[in-house]
Every structure is written in structure tokens, then in C-alpha cells.
Amino acid sequence: MFHVKHGEAPAAPPSAAAVFGECLELAEQYAAVLAGAGIERGLIGPGEVDRLWERHILNSTAVAELLNSGERVADVGSGAGLPGIPLRLARADVAVTLVEPLLRRAEFLSEVVELLGIPVTVIRGRAEERAVRDAAGHIDVVTSRAVASLDKLSRWCLPLLEPGGRMLAMKGERAAAEIAEHRRVMSSLGATDVKVMECGVNYLTPPVTVVVAVRGSRSGAGRRGSRIPPAPRSQSQERRPPRPQGSTRRTK
């Protein structure tokens, strides 16, 4: 077991207290680990220290606005634990599993989870592997952050989900263009109701752009009925989960 080295992280911004609540101290400890062992082991670049909170930690919690209480979340390609660990610290009412194929990163994640004392599962393996799907069990939501293109993410993430489950892919300003580029592949894999949403609009500038896709029924994958529609204009969701000092909006 490696020693989880702490570094000097910037002070948490005022918005962090509202996002993390009673877990703020754990979030600060996680930030210190990223500034220490995270850089030492090549998981975070040295130039990222000054923007750990806004660019990485709070950025990761923004998708918590799209989660419902009691859901089981798998973070694919978790790397340094982003967004999975901040999500669990912000939302104690969801279960989080971190999926990471690289041994050194998986070891880091296990150490951090143990250090923070949070009930997060770490699985070493690739999301597309049957063993990972079996180990993960029932999954309602799959998250990813700057992992791969949407066609690859759909191949990796959708099979982990139960029908009706959601893939939340954190993307940049090209999200809509990427949907258009990979529309057919995503549809053939069973992705439905694909849309672009912005999260954390009240405490992040810019907010986080998220591609949301629902996994259709197993029998419907690739059929005409699983066609991906264009991203609709702003519209309220039918069910609104608890949100950490922010509001989610669907982009035009």
C-alpha cells in the first residue's frame, strides 16, 4: 500500500460549503490528496493545482443534479476519482462504483476511498468486460469525464445499464456536434432520448455540459424506435432530484 501524500491545495470556495455540506472537510482532504499524490503519480497535472476546485472537484459534482436518491452510479474511466468521488461526497444518498482499467490508478482510488472512509467500490477493469458488468451489478447511471468520444462511450457504458438507465457524459462545447457525428452508432447501440444539458449554472462559470442518453429496452436496441432525436430546447425534467446549490438547464 502506497502512502497517500497530501499536498497544499487552494482553499475551498464559498460555494463548496453548500455543495458538500457536512462532507466539506472530506472534500478538502480529497483536494489535498489530488495536490499531493495525485500530481506525484501523474493523475493531475502540476498546473491544475490552482484550479482544483472549480475545474475538477466542483465541476464533477455538477452532474449530481441529474441523480435521483437511491440510484447506483458507475464512474467509468475514473482515473483520479473524477467525477465519482466528489459525487459521492456531495450525494450520500447514492451508491458509487469506480471503474478503472489501469492498476496504478485503481490502487490510488482504493487508497483514497480508504483514507476518506466512504463506502465506494473500486473495480479494476474495462467497462466492456463481462467480469466488470458482473461485479458492478445493477447500475442506474453511468458517468464519465473526458474519457472518449460518444461512440466509444456508448459501447462501453450502455451495456452496464439496466433498460431505462442513463449515461451522463461530461463534454465540452462541441457536445451537440459530437451527438450529430455519432448519432447512428449510438442509436444502433440502443441509446434513446439523447440531449445536451448544462449543470451547475448557479455556481460554475462556465457550467458543465453533459450529454444525457437513456438506454432503451434490450429488444429495442438498433431498431427504428430507438432513433435519437435532436437536442430539444429548454424544458423541465419530470422528476427533479435534490440539487447542490445550482440548477440544470437543457441547452438549445
UniProtKB/TrEMBL annotation:
InterPro entries: rRNA_ssu_MeTfrase_G, SAM-dependent_MTases_sf. Its main location: cytoplasm. Pfam families: GidB. SUPFAM superfamilies: S-adenosyl-L-methionine-dependent methyltransferases. Gene3D superfamilies: Vaccinia Virus protein VP39. It is found in: Cytoplasm. Keywords: Cytoplasm, Methyltransferase, rRNA processing, S-adenosyl-L-methionine, Transferase. This is Ribosomal RNA small subunit methyltransferase G. It comes from Mycolicibacterium madagascariense. The lineage of its organism: Bacteria, Bacillati, Actinomycetota, Actinomycetes, Mycobacteriales.
